[in-house]
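thread: overnight batch results

M.L. [08:02]
morning all. the overnight job finished for the chain we discussed friday. pasting input first so we're all looking at the same thing
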Amino acid sequence: MKKWIVGLLLILILTVSAIYIFTPSKIVISSISTARGNIFGEFRTITQEDKWEKWWRDENGKPHVAGEPFTYGGTRFRLVKHSYHVAGIEIDQQGLKQQSILHLISFRLDSTGAVWQCEIPTGMNPLSRVRNHINASGIKEKMDAVMKNFSSFVSKPENIYGMAIIRVSTVDTTMLSSRYTSAAYPTTPEIYSYFDEVEKNIQKQKGTVAGYPIMNVRKLENDSFETEVAIPTNHRLNNDGKFIFQRMIPGNFMTGEVKGGTYTANEALKQLELFIADYNRAKIANAFQSLVTNRLNEPDTSKWITKVYIPVVQ
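M.L. [08:03]
and the structure it wrote out:
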């Protein structure tokens, strides 16, 4: 009987010793991934929780429900802080909260790595060490799954910038332009009244409209707005008062196309500007919008098609 007790105690001692020897006092979980994306675009995507809505998927592949916590397999994830190319993310598994750090590393302009680490103390109690070790394995699986969703999303530039962006070249283009100032951002009827004035002058000079109307609106220091509009023509025209002939020489542009109202088009311009900065492109002139859809004839703004352009160095 005594031998049996001694043997049991020996087994217990060896088991506890093995737990302390083979289960460290701190577990470091790492999830590593790469994406075909720019580090600045990825950083904006991971450090703004409102952007998580676009790429987050749960364990069943379902998108996130607005207003609900970001969860995967019952574990909650929450952005708590961020600094230069680093994001702090809290991981809450059944009330046990752990702090983690996600580092972004740029390999090339269009290639970025992500290293997500979380340190979990296992405690002194042998049972808590075993339990926390098992929990750590579950957390790593979920971190890997979340990173897979994120990396897949940011590998497509249209997901980051809201549209596909390409480089195009233009041929020699002639146009007639004019500028207008208004106290507030110009309304759609006001913009088309500007186009009408330019088109009438084109007709006056025996010219022909040769493309979609284009425009650029900028806010002035006194909070008023200056709108420059132009209409492509089939040949060279003359300056006529406030109507100025312009020639767009052959060059390179970064461009994208969106559907939506004024806000959507203006946001596309902002995103195109970000793309130019992210990828170190040299901008050589102001951005502009090409209004493919006649907005006066189409009341449904969701059907408006607008192309945005920024001239760049090749």
